[in-house]
Amino acid sequence: MPRLPLSLGEIIISDIVFKVKKYNPNISREEIITFFGLTADVIPLCSYCNKVLVHKSQTCHPYKDVPSIDHRKPHYITGDNSLNNLALVCHECNILKSTLDDITYRQLYVVLNKPENKILKENYFNQMWRGKIANKVDRVNNDDRLPDFLPRWVHHYFT
Questions:
Q1: pTM (2 decimals)?
Q2: What is the largest CA-CA distance in the chain?
Q3: Pairing between strand 67-71 and 86-90?
Q4: Helix 29-36 × helix 8-23 angle, to 10°
Q5: Rounded to an integer, what distance in angstroms lies between the CA atom of residue 113 and that of residue 4?
Q6: What CATH topology corresponds to 1-113?
């Protein structure tokens, strides 16, 4: 019997569950859905900026408004992957927050989102994004491989 296509809400829920399980595979799907208040007919919002989270096929801003999972208190400090330390956020907030704790990031968010700081926010985002890519490339270089998500020209340049 053929399966019915999933609704967009169910696809977003499955994406979020998958991302949480990368951090803690022992958490059940039901626990994740309950903790984040996910339903197929309610659109999830970013915990930091309240931006509507959409599936990557719906966005016109590359990756900025897709769901991401963030550690409220940085994992490198606490080692905590429990649901209480995970937040459902937009990818942009996850990049901007980087390794800050959630309280410090909320203070930074207020400053970055003042109208007069629009260019500062964009420059900060671009710097953090480049740093994340450089970090991934550095980690992968230890394996003598480049990550698949990099554009072809990067692979051609480094190989």
A1: 0.74
A2: 57
A3: antiparallel
A4: 110
A5: 42
A6: Herpes Virus-1 (3.30.40)
Show me where the domains of the chain are located. 1-113, 117-159
The C-alpha atoms of residue 33 and residue 27 are separated, in whole angstroms, by 10
Angstrom distances, CA of residue 155 to CA of 54, 69, 131, 138: 30, 28, 18, 14
Note the pLDDT tens digit of each residue in 41-94. Answer: 888 899 999 998 887 755 555 667 888 999 999 988 888 999 999 999 998 899
Do 27 and 20 meet the contact criterion of CB atoms below 8 Å apart? Answer: yes
Q: Are 55 and 12 within 8 A, CB to CB?
A: yes
Find the angle CA(88)-CA(72)-CA(122) to the nearest 5 degrees: 75
Residues 10-47: pLDDT tens digits?
Answer: 888 888 999 999 999 999 999 999 999 988 888 889 99
Check if the beta carbon of residue 50 is closer than 8 Å to that of residue 90. no
